[in-house]
Design brief:
Blueprint (H helix, E strand, L loop, with lengths): L3 H4 L10 H9 L8 H4 L2 E7 L2 E6 L14 H17 L8 E10 L9 E10 L3 E9 L5 E11 L3
Antiparallel strand pairs: 1-2, 2-4, 3-6, 4-5, 5-6
Length: 154
C-alpha cells in the first residue's frame, strides 16, 4: 500500500525572481555572467526595475588609437538595461535586446571605474523599455542609452 505522501502530486517549487538572482550575484553567492568578466562589470545596487554597477575598461578594450572603444560603453549600457528588466521578471523568463540607441558624450579612460545605472521605464507582457547611463566618479555623463527588450513569456 502506498503512503499518502507518495500519492500526492509533487509541490511546485516557488519561482525565483530575477531580482533574487541579481541580489545573490551582487552578494557573491552566485557567479557573475561571463560577459561581466570580459567587460568588467560589478553590481553595486539592485532594486526592482533599477540596477547600478561599477564598470572599468582596461587595456583589452582599447581601439587602435589607444582610446576605449565605444563598444565597451555600448555593451555596459545594454547589460545594465537588460538587468534592470531582468530584475522585474521571473528568473526563467527569456528576454533579448531588439534596439539599443547610444549617445557618446565623453570618452572613457582605461583603468578608471565608472558608474552605470539603468532603470526600467515600462514593461508590458512582451516588451521592456529602459534607460541607462554611464557617469564618471565626478558625476559627469559619459554615455547614455535607451533600450527596447523583447520578453518571451513562458
Amino acid at each position: 500500500m502506498k503512503d499518502a505522501a507518495e500519492e500526492s502530486p509533487p509541490a511546485e517549487a516557488p519561482a525565483i525572481s530575477g531580482l533574487q538572482v541579481l541580489q545573490a550575484m551582487q552578494a557573491g553567492r552566485i557567479e557573475r555572467s561571463s560577459i561581466a568578466h570580459t567587460m568588467p562589470m560589478q553590481l553595486t545596487s539592485v532594486q526592482p526595475g533599477e540596477v547600478c554597477m561599477t564598470v572599468t575598461p582596461d587595456a583589452r578594450h582599447l581601439n587602435p588609437a589607444g582610446m576605449v572603444h565605444g563598444g565597451f560603453a555600448a555593451t555596459c549600457l545594454d547589460g545594465a538595461a537588460a538587468l534592470a528588466l531582468f530584475s522585474a521578471l521571473d528568473a526563467g523568463t527569456p528576454y533579448s535586446t531588439v534596439d539599443l540607441n547610444v549617445k557618446y558624450v565623453r570618452p572613457l579612460v582605461a583603468g578608471i571605474g565608472y558608474v552605470a545605472t539603468a532603470r526600467l521605464l515600462e514593461k508590458t507582457r512582451s516588451m521592456g523599455v529602459c534607460n541607462a547611463e554611464i557617469r564618471g566618479q565626478d558625476g559627469k555623463l559619459h554615455a547614455l542609452a535607451s533600450a527596447t527588450l523583447m520578453i518571451k513569456p513562458a
